[in-house]
Amino acid sequence: MKKYLLLFCLMALVQASFAASWPSTDPVTPSDSVVVEFGKSGRIVILVESKEDFEKLKLMNINQIIRELDLEEDDESGEITIVEIKKKDGTSKQVVKVTEDGAETEVYIGGMRLLVDETGSSTKVRLEPGLRRKQDPPFRTYFNLDLGVNNYLEDGNFPTSDKPYSVKGWGSWNVGINWMAAQRISKGFYWDFGLGFQFYNFKFENRDYQAVRGDDQVAFIQRNDVDGFKSKISASYITAMTMLELDFGKMNDNGRRGLRVAAGPYVGYRLGGQSKYVYRELGGSGRRKDKQDTGLYLNNLRYGIRGEIGVGRINFFTTYDLNTLFQEGKGPELNPITFGIVF
Q: Which UniProt keywords apply (predicted)?
C-alpha cells in the first residue's frame, strides 16, 4: 500500500514542483499519452513514442512499472535516488531522493519533504514545503578556538603547594586558534588535521617565587625584598595536529545530536617564552614588572596527544605533552596538561 501511495504522491509532487516551467497551453491530453486517474484529482500521465511502446505498456502492471525503474538503494543510508541531473563538469545533483526506514519513508524533492508514516494503525502523510536536507560534505575546512586551563605532571602527579613552581589553576590559561580540515572517510568517520597557534600560561600558586634564568638552568628564587602580586611563565607555539574522529550522530542519521570522539598526535614549535613577575616595593610603591624574554630553558619542540569529546554544540578537549616543558637537565621534569572547551 505504501509503495502505491508513495508513487502517487511522488507524481503529484513532481507535477507541482515543475508546473511553473510548463507552457501555459490549453490542457489537452496529447495523442501519444496514457492517463491513469485515481481518487478525485490524482492522475499519472505516461508518454509513449510509438505503437510498439503502447503495446508493451498494455502488458505491464503497476508492480512491473515500479520494477522497471531499476532503482538502486544505498545499503548504509537506505536512500534511493529517483531523479538525478548530470552536469557538464561530470558532477550530479539529486533532485528526487527517497529514504525508507522501516514503516517511515521520506521523499525529498528540491526543498520539499514528503513523509509517509505507517507506524500506527493508519497511514499518515505530511508535506513540509521549504525544507532543505543538509548534506554532509566529503571535505570541509573551518576555524575553531581553544580555551582551557593549564597544569603539569611531575612523576605522574600534580606538584604540591610546597613546590615553588606549583600552578594556580585559575589564571593558568591556554588560548589557541586553529585552522582545521575534515576529510570524510566513511559515514560518521573523519580524518581531521590542521595548524594552530597556542599560548600557554603557567601562573604560580606561590607568588613570592620568581622564575629566572640561571647560569645553566632555570632557578626559582624567593623574593622577600618585595611584595609579590603575580608570577608566571608563558610560552607560545605553532602547532600541527591530526586526529581520527567518530561521529555517532552522523552514523545514526541524528546530525549533531550524537556523541563525538576524536584523538590523535600533535607537534609544536616554540615561537617565544618569558617569565613575568609583578610586585610592589615594601615601602609602598606602585606596581612594577620584571620580565625575562629568554625562554628560560624551555624546550623548543613539544609533542603529545590530543583528545576531544562532544555532544551537540559542546566540545571538550584535553592535551598532554609527552616531552617535558624544560630542556633535559635545565629544570624540573614537568609534562604540561590542558583541559578546556572548543568553540
A: Signal
